Amino acid sequence: MARTGERETVWELKPHTAAKHQLLTGYLKAWFPILSRWNARIVFLDGFAGPGIYKGEEYGSPIKALDVLLKHTHRDAMANKEFVFLFNEAEQDRYEQLEIVVRDYVAKNQPWPSNVKVSVGSDSFENVAEGILGFLEQQKSNLAPTFAFVDPFGVKGLPMDLLRRLLSFDRCELFVYFDFNTVNRFANAGNIDDRLTELFGTDLFKQARGLTGAERKAFLHDLYQSQLVEVCGFSYVKSFEMVNSSGHTGYFLFYGTRNIKGLEVMKDVMWTVDPGSGEKFSDILAGQDVLFQAEVDTRPLQQDMAQHFRGQLVSVETLAHYVLVDTPYALKHLKKLTLKPMQKEGVITSPNQKRTGTFPEGTLIKFAD
């Protein structure tokens, strides 16, 4: 494999990267058909696409994204919709490798579907985003529903303000790499403050001074998350933590959307990757036979809801929204694993339930005082 100095053009696929791809492809499997029902054009943007392949011939995110669509069980139903894949890689050697990988993939999948457009470019993510924005301004048009996968090395070239401008349209979503290891190391060093200010869209990261351990991690994590909400205007932001082989947090993946259905789908995928908590993957446990509980432990959720809704009469739809937005649990954990045992224990009752233990749409639930 080619090298530039000591930097590899193609490198080994790490377990946490495979988990990241699992999150990405799991989400796209649902996102493509959902969005194509209502939109004539769908865009997938991979802003830091890499070489497209790893040592051992494992495909990278660009080909995995294409694979999801071309092998989708509902592909025929989406044949009249246009799918645009934009792959960008700034490093010249990796871009050249990516071109070869994409070209070979297209050749292997002939006849290539006419509704699937693929573009491979080599520029900075900032220039690519500015180019898209300039084109939209000239056309006086809005960006088609776009899933932006932004997965850089480090903290350079990812200004919060650029994300705001590029993803300001309602149907645009973000899946972004947040290099916690670098941010944590340099938040108070003073030598890359300009980069970190661009990354966060504020210099409030400096308030991490004096914080240590879990408190410092939570502060930096929550600051970036709040900026995605307040600056970029995402209604819902959910993160997933990646722990390296030394047991330390390497980075977080942040998902941003304005659609609660998107949040529901992403949380389902996160719980598939992490059946224990839906929030974390560790390289330490990769490849090991980890024994998870047969069913998710929803006792913390039961206690939380019993306290939060104490004495109230609420709909099951209200509870579903609460679980999705305000807890780490997924919607699939609500009825059978949470409400059913709560009713059995007398914590909740229902004035309009037709059958005990079932909670169809419109069910009202009364929480004990």
TrEMBL record:
InterPro entries referenced in this protein's UniProt entry, alphabetically: Tcm_partner (IPR031009)
Taxonomic superkingdom: Bacteria
Protein name, per record: Three-Cys-motif partner protein TcmP
Organism expressing this protein natively: Amycolatopsis acididurans
